Amino acid sequence: MLTLNIEEGSQAYHATKRFDEVIQSLDRRLRQFCLVLLSILVSVVVLNVVMRYVFSESLLWANELSRYLMTWFALLMTASLVNSDDHLNVAIVYDKFSKQTQYRLQSATMLLYVFAGLIWTNFGIQYCLEAGLRATAPALEFQMIWVYMIIPITGALVTLFSGARFIRLVIFGQTETLETHYTEADGEGSQHD
User: Fold this and answer.
1) Distance (Å, rounded) from C-alpha 126 to C-alpha 142?
2) How many domains would you assign to the chain?
3) Helix (H) or strand (E) segment spanning residue 60
4) Position 64 in a domain
5) For 137-147, how does the pLDDT look when each residue is reduced to its tens digit (9 = 90+)?
6) Is 119 inside any structural domain?
């Protein structure tokens, strides 16, 4: 198993705990920002509906802005859900595995997320610079780089959050899905106490 035997009072343990606290704080702030985005999105959509059906006038910029806000909201929440393991998954099969196998699956999944996040970030930077600087939003008339920059930001957040979850798994022997410490009682010779 990958767990490291780090004593609770050690500097490495405290540094890891502090890193995890920073990650959780970042996640809370990210969710608060997403709540603001969602509030603005709902306000713009409601305003546009009222303008269209009550005053028979549609706001030209409302559909475009709501599309961009929804994109930002969805991508940022994707990163946040990676951190909290609240994304959609099928636990029926997963729960049938032993704790050791669940641990290995979680470890492999987090490493795949890190790899995917790095690819996402790299692609996002390239796309942002190539397409974002050449395109302009039709109704709002700003460069699309402001919309496209969410792609590398989200990739970096997915990398950071999945790396943090992998560290929580290796150092503390737990993830939000398993919510347990892997001990010798779990079988197959765990190294974590």
Assistant:
1) 19
2) 1
3) none
4) yes
5) 988 889 999 99
6) yes
